[in-house]
Amino acid sequence: MPRRIFIVGDLAGEESLFAGALAREFTVSFAANLLDAGRRLAKEEAALLVLDLPAGGGEPPEDLLQRAQQIAPGIPVFATAAGADSEVIVRAVKAGAADFVSRPFEAEKLLLSVRRALENRSLKNEIDYLRREQDVVYDTDRIVAVSPAMQKVTAEIRRLAQTESTILITGETGTGKSFVSGNIHFNSPRRSRPFVKVNCANIPETLLESELFGHEKGAFTGADKTRIGRFEQAHGGTIFLDEFCELGPGLQAKLLRVLEDRTFERLGGNRTIEADVRVIAATNRDIEALVGEGRFREDLYYRINVLRVHLPPLRERREDIEPLARHLLGKIARQLKKPAEGFTPEALGRLKAYDWPGNIRQLANTIERALLVAEGPLIGEDHLALPEIPRPAAQPAAAPPPLPGLKLTAEQERAMIVRALEESLWIQKDAAKKLGISPRALNYRVRRLGIAHPRWRKNR
Fold it and tell me: What is the mean pLDDT of residues 224-243?
């Protein structure tokens, strides 16, 4: 959260004592009264308010704290007073004060109280949006990775978890992009901070901006109070934007600003809010093709595509199907409280021969259904429902560009594409396969980089 603390009131000349106690970790600002604080807070963000309660027959503590909470919704408020008796302290805490600081005070005790209040605020924000409790252990060593393709992905996850950079995860639906994002966060230096997931495809466009960035009271019909957004909730931690390619042009521009400046405004507000958030984005779309078609901002693409992980589909990692199936069977059996011993050889053979268009998600659903219909603890071939879903003739490739994890200059990218084209006798389809991108994505890059060859019809 912003590291500014507002001290409201005259403090009977003890302003310098408060500033000295807090200045090591915070920026301290002073406001003469709540009216002045309200004007300042319209332009400045604050982490906490320290409110001086006047002694002897002044405005009741309850009224002062209520006004403070109105001008600074969601911000912790400390109450302070000189020589306050226990009744005043109890009334202030009951009225919503996060803590009470009696004067004279001890500097270390004040600093400790402020830290605790800000930690509690962060926890409260996370609880407000908490995902339902899930049986997930984010241990990289427990990822099922028998195949060389997944062993490479696992090594990449370990490396990327230690960085602070934006990460793009690509792969077909059901390949485990959400799980990988959690694995990266919970094995990173931000592991003790919030991890917030947002599925951009499941939220209507009209509500998504408010969901991501929050809104001020009165920003739109029904906005009867200020609400913080997911970016603000994830401050200090990680936000996972699933299916982020579904963002409209306006939200793409706002996301670009967050990535570049680490700042944003709530919907209906003009106050700039800082966001110390690591972004992990995921898509099952061919993002290079979307850029080439003008449906996704090129500048945002370069900001989001700093480090990249591609999750191969299950049909390309068949060595993992059997250990995955056994792992999922044990997990689902525990959830359903039903005994399960394993699969017959015929059932395993069918599982390994199937193409799994829905990938791991489909495998888990298939095993759950089989366990429910099986009368005994052994899953047989006749318990498996494996529909043959026709696949499109040409699948959009979501594979990473060459040298994933490196941000190439235009000259480096051009040289790499030209080399692949030369090795493929200038056949773009073959060069695209060699580079690990779709032919459409390669064609877009060829046009953008001005690459030409006499054999190509358009250059004759």
Answer: 91
Neighbouring CB atoms inside 10 A of 304's CB total 26
DSSP 227: B
Q: Are 97 and 77 in contact (CB under 8 A)?
A: yes
In the chain, the domains with their CATH numbers are 4-123 (3.40.50.2300), 140-311 (3.40.50.300), 316-383 (1.10.8.60), 410-459 (1.10.10)
Torsion angle in degrees (nearest 10) through CA of 415, 417, 422, 428: -160
d(CA 79, CA 58): 14
Question: For residue 85, with 0-12 CB atoms within 10 Å meaning exposed, 13-18 middle and 19 or more buried, which class applies?
Answer: exposed
CA neighbours closer than 13 Å in the CB half-sphere of residue 366: 28
Q: How far apart are CA 293 and CA 262, in angstroms?
A: 28
Q: At what angle do helices 86-94 and 61-71 cross, to 10 degrees?
A: 30
pLDDT tens track for 142-199? 888 999 999 999 999 999 999 999 999 999 999 999 999 999 999 999 988 899 999 9
pLDDT attached to residue 53: 82
Residues 451, 443: Cα–Cα separation, whole Å:
10
Burial degree of 173 (CB within 10 A; 0-12, 13-18, 19+): middle
Return the pLDDT at 25: 81
Is residue 64 a contact partner of residue 33, using CB atoms and an 8 Å limit?
A: no
- Under a CB-based contact definition with an 8 Å cutoff, are residues 363 and 327 in contact? no
Residue 359 and residue 314: Cα distance in Å, rounded? 5
Query: Beta strands 263-265 and 272-274: pairing type?
Result: antiparallel
Residue 25 in tokens: 């970790």
| Residue-wise DSSP of 172-204 | -TTS-HHHHHHHHHHTSTTTTS-EEEEETTSS-
Task: For the chain, state the CA radius of gyration.
Answer: 28
